[in-house]
Design goal:
Layout: E1 2-7, H1 21-30, E2 35-45, H2 46-51, H3 60-65, E3 71-80, E4 83-91, E5 95-102, E6 112-119, E7 125-132, H4 137-154, E8 161-166, H5 173-180, E9 185-186, H6 187-190, E10 209-214, E11 217-223, E12 238-243
Helix pairs in contact: 4-5
Length: 244
Amino acid sequence: MRVLTVNTHKGFTPFNRRFILPELRDAVRTTGADLVFLQEVLGRHQRHALRFMDWPEVPHYEFLADEMWPEFAYGRNAVYPSGHHGNALLSKYPIAEYENLDVSLSEAEKRGLLHCVLRLPRGVELHAVCVHFGLTEVHRRAQTRLLCERLRDRVPPDAPLVVAGDFNDWRLQAHLTLAGDCGLREAFTELDRDVPRTFPARWPLLPLDRVYLRNARVRRARVLSTRPWSHLSDHAPLIVEVAS
């Protein structure tokens, strides 16, 4: 199974200079990912829809899913007069159920955890959580605790689990908690590599984006930081190949 996580930056290039969602869709399709974890994906934006000629008529997560990912789930985090955005999961496997957990700790910074349960072949249930944490350390600590509580209460200890997204955790404090209290394994460190640097996309310096696993093995992991990815968002995506 291939897992991709990408902060879509609402469909714009870094610094919002150009709308590039169609180009991002083309790039995402080339990865052959089975699961795509999306952060900062737009559900609706009335003003942008009037401004840009190539603005899709459907929500951005549905536009990205196209015919490649028949199943998708969306969790609305931030709502404003023109529309809303949040996290989404695109899946080639049936999504049996999903729930969006609001972990916002301030009105200015809306954040969420999108928890999906997928039906895999042979009756296996995979839990997938799409994450977008806050910019401040105190918020991230609280959001990490909420994530750990969610996993403890709602995910069977023997179930395969993937947690991926934008953790904004450049100081690796959440990483230590997730590896310790939650029993999660970060994909790159499982391959004896450093936690991946993903921001800014053109010259990645900060380790913001992650893929964590439980009851699954990592076969390969890569940061997508070259063209076209370096021009499609302010974050470099991660692609991870997972096996049971």
